[in-house]
Design brief:
2 copies of one chain form a homodimer. With 459 residues, chain A is of the alpha+beta class. Chain A folds into 2 domains: 6-201 and 373-458, Zn peptidases (Aminopeptidase), CATH 3.40.630; 203-257 and 303-371, Alpha-Beta Plaits (2-Layer Sandwich). Helix content of chain A is 36%, strand content 22%. Chain A has 15 helices and 18 strands. Chain A has helices spanning 6-16, 18-29, 41-58, 123-144, 166-172, 174-177, 220-223, 230-239, 262-268, 275-282, 295-300, 341-355, 381-394, 408-417, 442-458, and strands at residues 61-65, 72-77, 86-92, 112-114, 117-119, 150-156, 181-184, 196-201, 203-212, 218-219, 304-313, 322-323, 326-335, 361-371, 374-375, 399-403, 421-424, 439-441. In chain A, the strands form 4 sheets. In chain A, strands 1, 2, 3, 6, 7, 8, 15, 16 and 17 form a 9-stranded mixed beta sheet that branches. In chain A, a hairpin with a 2-residue loop joins strand 4 and strand 5. In chain A, helix 1 runs antiparallel to helix 15 (442-458). The longest helix of chain A has 22 residues, at 123-144. Chain A is globular and about 80 Å long. The model of chain A has no long low-confidence stretch (mean pLDDT 94). At the A-B interface, strand 10, helix 7, helix 8, helix 10 and helix 11 of A face strand 10, helix 7, helix 8, helix 10 and helix 11 of B. Strand 11 of chain A pairs antiparallel with strand 11 of chain B.
Chain lengths: 459, 459
């Protein structure tokens, strides 16, 4: 069978098995594998066991492997001929909490189809996306008895709680996970006609700061005017971290930032996000950001400094005349290549200390390990193979985009495995990830299976 | 009997009735008249009825008078001779909530004496202070069958919830309350040897502001860098309201401020509060306030602008990468004579609007009616009578002080009755008002009765 015809036949198998493949997804979605909630710990393990057995039934070797937390599912299919390339498919079988339940229009763990969309927690994020890869492998094995390449699956159970154990697992299993390309479908198309390939992700630095001015809360009538107010002190510090145009003022903040080349800027300009789409999505009356950069550049290619939380004093109803003892802020920086999180934290915290007014003591706490931004070589042959597969499947060449958010495991894969990462999303922008009524189009699932079949053939 | 001997004999009566007078206070303190808590509504009324009956038993006419909320107790004793001056004694029979109960070393509504102090909620604030006046009247009536002056009592039940109905009650009962002097004991001595007479109180303006930048909370990775952050916008606005030396920058803020004369500054300089005492009381590492003014001047004679509450975004444990939709602050200004609350609110809110960065909408809400600062004529004969009574009782002439806090009813009395107010405190600075283990020294109660007896004689 030629490379040319093979995917067509395999895709035809997937089309014939449509009902069964959907039923497999429904069965998987019915397991409430909420990693954040201890009362679902048995469900999380159930999902891992279900997945492992499912992979074995298809014809892979598969096992549930322990970590310090929820287990990972590892599976592989080895090509009988040596020298074939190896794909490592990553995904996560855990899901976000479903709360608030009352805002769902059907039960989050009873998958329900309305207007061609499957409503269920985890349908788009991420069970429906990585199961598409599994169904692609199944279609090959059922049709031809084999695959064109070696395939490995690493499906984790802690993505929604920040993946506390996966980095160590990857580092400890470098041989087991060795591959030529990592395939991750945990993002989205623009439309069912317009695929995207992410080639950059922002990193994240997240810390908390406490400003303290007295040992305990004070009466504002008695002490106001003689003792520093930490809410005001913190406001004055924060206010000076950005110009009134939104440029971060921390010395050295932009020193190591990846500079966009003309080709990159031209590619980014194809991303159909602009002031109007952002206004419509957010309800903002006007946009606000670094001068000299357009919307998609600010979203994916420029670092940010944001206050994510702020609290001090009395926040209940009515008036309380308290002079607070402390004020707190949660602050995060989205980082781009080649900013170093530790260096940026040093620069920001040192600058904040310099800005601290009299009578105020600052204390910093890191809330999670910092992650670097990621840049993927768009010209790598593995990425180009994915681009061809996407074009054949969706009808248009993918747009290369930068993502404002972070996928920490991508850094682990790059550091430990040292191979290109393909970030080809199978969901759609309005899938309600992390929100009530999460859904995933049946068409997305079926196109995802097709794209995955074509990708394996293109490698 | 001469004016000279009369108080001595009356004081002797109070000393003989020591045990009974203490038992009366314990009985009063055992009523949990917490005005803020609906479950105590019956106890609040019980306290009013108890007090009214107590005043009748002593020999006054007394009644419980309805208001829109908790009732007031009104009582009077009319001198048979016309032309005698009239004293109106103000106090409040309601108390603060006792929570947190677990921090009390004895039950808040079972008065307990330890080391000469009566531990109970309301002991110092304010039952023990106004009951001293009542016991002074009782001592006169039991000893001499009469009083040297006309006496009226107005004891309210809503002081601890901001006195929402008292202003209207005073305005509606101008004739009933007509007097030559208002006596209020709701403050404190410096020590049992050093009385104070307050001659100024700060007013209060209290409002809330909301800064909004989007319709709902956003993902900071997706929208950070393109949409304004309201926590940062609000910080930038707040930061510009004061210089780094603590001077309020709002145009016009200081325009109408009462300027201290050399005599006033010399008197204020006698107040034994300084950097060291404030540091010891607050745990502040250094003081911070308007240059050119000393600690007591900043506390009582200068206006302030303070952030009393601040909140935005995610304030729970750990990291959440939210770009908040809104940020809120509670802001109050302590006002001094002759600042006008409405004018100051206009000035502050207009200045904040001018400082608002792009993409941000501010909304202001007044949280309570503004009150003006108060200044009392220290040279009024009624105030001087109180000064002589205090000197005879405590052994030293009182220090005239300015108080940083506010007693709104003082303005109502000044406006409606137009007579001098005597603010002679019977408590001590460490009485734990509004806190667990509130207490009141037995010696404070007894000296208070004596001071009140002497004051009535001095008028």
């Amino acid at each position: 069978m030629s490379q040319f015809n093979m995917p067509t036949q395999v895709i035809a198998h997937a089309e014939r098995e449509r009902e069964q493949f959907l039923n497999d997804l429904y069965e998987y979605l019915a397991i409430p594998s909420v990693s954040a909630q201890p009362e679902h710990a048995r469900d999380v393990r159930h999902a891992a066991v279900w997945l492992s057995e499912h992979l074995r039934n298809i014809g892979l070797t598969a096992s549930v492997m322990e970590t310090g937390g929820h287990p990972v599912v590892y599976a592989e299919w080895k090509h009988p001929e040596a020298g074939k390339p190896t794909v490592l498919v990553y995904g996560h079988y855990d899901v976000q909490p479903a709360e608030p339940f009352e805002l769902w229009h059907s039960e989050p763990f009873k998958p329900t189809v309305r207007d061609g969309d499957i409503y269920a927690r985890g349908s788009s994020d991420n069970k429906g996306q990585h199961l598409a890869h599994i169904k692609a492998v199944e279609s090959y094995l059922k049709t031809t008895g084999g695959l064109p390449v070696n395939v490995k699956f690493l499906i984790e159970g802690e993505e929604e709680i920040g993946g506390p154990n996966l980095g160590a697992f990857v580092a400890a299993n470098k041989e087991l996970l060795a591959c030529d390309v990592v395939m991750i479908s945990d993002s989205h198309l623009l439309t069912l006609d317009q695929p995207t390939l992410l080639y950059g992700l922002r990193g994240l630095l997240y810390f908390e700061v406490e400003a303290r001015c007295s040992a305990h809360d004070l009466h504002s009538g008695t002490y106001g005017g003689n003792v520093q107010n930490p809410a005001m002190a913190l406001a004055q510090i924060l206010a000076q971290l950005k110009t009134d145009q939104g440029v971060v003022t921390v010395p050295g903040f932009y020193d190591d930032v990846h500079v966009l080349g003309p080709e990159e800027r031209a590619e980014i300009a194809r991303i159909p996000q602009n002031e109007d789409t952002i206004k419509a999505e957010t309800g903002a009356s006007e946009l606000f950001g670094e001068p000299g950069f357009n919307v998609p550049e600010r979203m994916g290619a420029r670092p940010t400094l944001e206050v994510n939380g702020l609290w001090s004093g009395y926040t209940g109803p009515g008036a309380k005349t308290v002079l607070p003892a402390i004020a707190n802020a949660k602050i995060s920086c989205r980082l781009v290549p080649y900013q170093d999180p530790a260096k940026i934290f040093e620069a920001v915290s040192a600058h904040m200390r310099r800005l601290t007014p009299p009578g105020t003591t600052l204390t910093f706490t890191m809330l999670q390990e910092g992650t670097r931004g990621t840049l993927i070589d768009r010209h790598a042959p593995q990425v180009q193979a994915a681009a061809r597969a996407a074009q054949s499947t969706y009808g248009n060449p993918p747009i290369f985009t930068l993502e404002g958010g972070s996928i920490p495991v991508v850094n682990d894969f790059q550091d430990v495995l040292g191979k290109p990462i393909v970030l080809l999303g199978y969901g759609l922008p309005g899938d309600n990830l992390h929100a009530p009524d999460e859904h995933y189009a049946i068409a997305c699932y079926e196109k995802g299976i097709e794209a995955s079949i074509r990708f394996l053939a293109e490698l």
